[in-house]
Amino acid sequence: MSTLPIHFAPLQGYTEASYRNAHAAIFGGVDTYHTPFVRIDRGDFRYKDVRDIDPVNNNVPQLIPQLIAPNAELAERMIHLFIEKGYTAANINLGCPFPMLTKRHNGSGILPYPEEVKELLRVIEKFPQIRFSAKMRLGFSEASECLALAPLLNDTSLSEITLHPRLGVQQYKGDVDLKAFSAFYNACNLPIIYNGDLHTVEDIQRITERFPKLSGIMIGRGLLTNPALACEYKEGQILTSDQLKEKLQLLHNGVFAHYESQLQGGEKQLVVKMKAFWEYLAPQIDRKAWKAIHKSTTLNKYNIAIQAALTLGK
Ligand SMILES: Cc1cc2nc3c(=O)[nH]c(=O)nc-3n(C[C@H](O)[C@H](O)[C@H](O)COP(=O)(O)O)c2cc1C
Questions:
Q1: From first to last of its 314 residues, what are the pLDDT tens digits of the chain?
Q2: Which CATH class is domain 6-235?
């Protein structure tokens, strides 16, 4: 059966370079990885964003850096950074729901203002050497917002639009609205990628059957919960629990080795950082072991807990 390209969604705090690199090496199945957004904070780039997109720190088949900005002027500064780092593609965030950002018309906060979206998207024409895509929600407070934007978006040379069918005000609550997704899918002439709440191969197949014109699938939390999901979809074969645990051990080791060499805040900081690695993995491991990981405060306790979590045959 033919499959669609799989995009690993950007997840700030989870899919940083070390995770992406280890995921690509150990699980694969993902065609394109996306970086969490780069933003300008009090007039400057955040060091961690610049380090995260630097090609010397990245080793995946295809990586697209993402920017978030309320206007073309700030976006341009980030595009110059991407060009300096050798990128030829960029993703524009029109979906972030965090109130700190949306109140300044960043992310989904810009969606109710077509004139501002138009001004921001002027960067597309300004940098013809860059292949721009956008990642958006249905709207900030109304699903009609994306429909009002469709003619304007159709007039751009965006290569693709990823749509997550929730509103900004919902953040991650409530169900995805597939009826509203369908309305935008019909109104938009650009290639569309579906994103939202896909956790199993059947979930992916249900969406690709319902929306046959999709150009790709983007998965975030579903891949954090089952890092094998993309390769299971591509290869049509589900890993056994032991096969998954063996690969999780390798994924863990790759991420752990990176943070061990990077973090200078001692073992406490290392343990805190590694807890994020396990956050979405609860369904794959023993409940008691998962709790022990989250309670651990020393490296010793952490290591004991993860060995229990990854014991085969359980
Ligand atoms: C903790 C967290 C961080 C996120 N960071 C970003 C981000 O930096 N850029 C972005 O476009 N979306 C971000 N998202 C949204 C995801 O990329 C994705 O659109 C959303 O989780 C829905 O897809 P999913 O159900 O497959 O996870 C984030 C989501 C979460 C939960």
A1: 799 999 999 999 999 999 999 999 999 999 999 999 999 989 999 999 999 999 999 999 999 999 999 999 999 999 999 999 999 999 999 999 999 999 999 999 999 999 999 999 999 999 999 999 999 999 999 999 999 999 999 999 999 999 999 999 999 999 999 999 999 999 999 999 999 999 999 999 999 999 999 999 999 999 999 999 999 999 999 999 999 999 999 999 999 999 999 888 889 999 999 999 999 999 999 999 999 999 999 999 999 999 999 998 76
A2: alpha beta
Query: Is residue 6 within a helix (H) or strand (E), and if so which, with residue range?
Result: strand 6-8
Pairwise CA distance, residues 192 & 161, whole Å? 5
**CA–centroid distance, residue 11 to ligand 1 (Å):** 5
**Cα(10) to centroid(ligand 1), Å:** 6
Is this model's pTM higher than 0.90 or not? Answer: yes
Q: Phi then psi for 163, rounded to 5 degrees?
A: -120, 125
Pocket of ligand 1 (CB under 6 A): 9-13, 36-37, 66, 93, 95-96, 135, 164, 172, 195-198, 219-222
Strand, helix or coil for residue 216: strand
The ranges assigned to domains in the chain are: 6-235, 241-309
Place of tokens 């799989």: 6
Closest protein CA for atom 7 of ligand 1: 36
**β-pair type (131-139, 160-167):** parallel
Measure 128 CA to ligand 1 centroid, in angstroms.
27
Q: How far is the CA of 314 from the centre of ligand 1 (A)?
A: 31
